[in-house]
Every structure is written in C-alpha cells, then in structure tokens.
Design brief:
- This protein is mainly beta and 91 residues long.
- It has one domain (16-80).
- It is built from one helix and five strands; from the N terminus they run βββαββ.
- It has one helix spanning 52-63; strands spanning 10-11, 26-32, 45-50, 67-76, 79-85.
- The protein has a five-stranded mixed beta sheet with strand order 1-3-2-4-5, with helices on one face.
- A hairpin with a 2-residue loop joins strand 4 (67-76) and strand 5.
- The longest helix has 12 residues, at 52-63.
- The mean pLDDT is 87.
Amino acid sequence: MRDISARELKGHKILAVERFWDNTRWMIEFSVLRPSTAYGSPGEEMRLFLTEDGYQAALQSQQCREIKIKRYARVIEGHILDFKPGKRRRS
C-alpha cells in the first residue's frame, strides 16, 4: 500500500473552507474499512476537518472498526499543528 500522503484523498482538500471555521479543532486522514453513509466505501482514503464532536464520532467509528485513522492533527485558527502519523491521542 502506498503512503497515504502520496495519493489524492477524498473528503476535504487541504485548503478547504471547513479548515478555517471557528469551531474546527481536528484534521484526520483515514482509510474506510466498512461501508458507511458517513465516510464512504471500503478502501477509500479521506481527509476531514472536524469539530470536537465530529472528532469524537470519528474515534467511535474507529473503535467500531468502520475507519482506521492514519494521521491526525490539532487545528487552531486554520493552522494545522502537531501532525502525527500512527496512533491517535484521546482527548
């Protein structure tokens, strides 16, 4: 499998308007493992900018094995901070 950063991701583009919304707190890049109306089809790679509630829902989806978070980062005033590959931190 190629590195997720080398492919075009579905979902939000890196300069998406959602990144700059006041309530955006997280960016996640993930693989869809099971069919989901919220995330897409198995095998798709996605990026989303999320509120705190959206991030908690994504963590729940990961626990249910619907998605696998590959990278995550905090977002503050549109700035992507603490970009981390691998395991995500619980907040």
